[in-house]
């Protein structure tokens, strides 16, 4: 079964964090990244890493994340919110639109009320935006069927990596 995964970032501040999210998006097969606010728009042109990843993953500034929600997607807020589902217990939908708050704030109650699900990562302290996106996307991968062949490893690794493991 095919799936569609998009990320929505509410007013991200740091071009470095967004560049890390775009790298994760490429690694984990995210289809698009949408963002609101002006802070990232102003910062993105000054970060070389961000410019490189825009070529791989559509990164689109929007006024309202819900207006660009991919058709048929469940909206999943990722936030430390009371009564949210802990990520280890969460079953990811096939078609998901994951929404993250800004690095220096939280998702609004009004936004939280519009989503289908709210999940949190059970850590002792809050993580930064890029780390949160990476953990969420890895959790999604770990709970799904994925390619475990050496051919997949050869396609995925860096061009300078030719290492193999011979012990069984």
Outline: globular
| Span of the ends, CA to CA | 32 Å
Point out poorly predicted stretches.
none
Order of helices and strands: EHEHHEEEEHEHH
Largest sheet: 7 strands, parallel
Count of discrete alpha- or pi-helical segments spanning 4 or more residues: 6
As a percent range, the share of strand residues is 15-25%
The side-by-side strand order for the widest beta sheet comes to 3-2-1-6-4-7-5
Mean pLDDT over all positions: 85
Amount of helix: 25-40%
Structural class: alpha/beta
DSSP E strands, number: 7
Gyration radius over CA: 17 Å
How would you explain this protein's 3D organization?
The chain is 31% helix and 18% strand. It is of the alpha/beta class and 168 residues long. Strands 3-2-1-6-4-7-5 form a 7-stranded parallel β-sheet, covered by helices on one side. Helix 1 runs parallel beside helix 3 and helix 1 runs parallel beside helix 5. The longest helix is centred in the N-terminal third of the chain and has 14 residues, at 15-28. It is globular and about 55 Å long. The two termini are 32 Å apart.
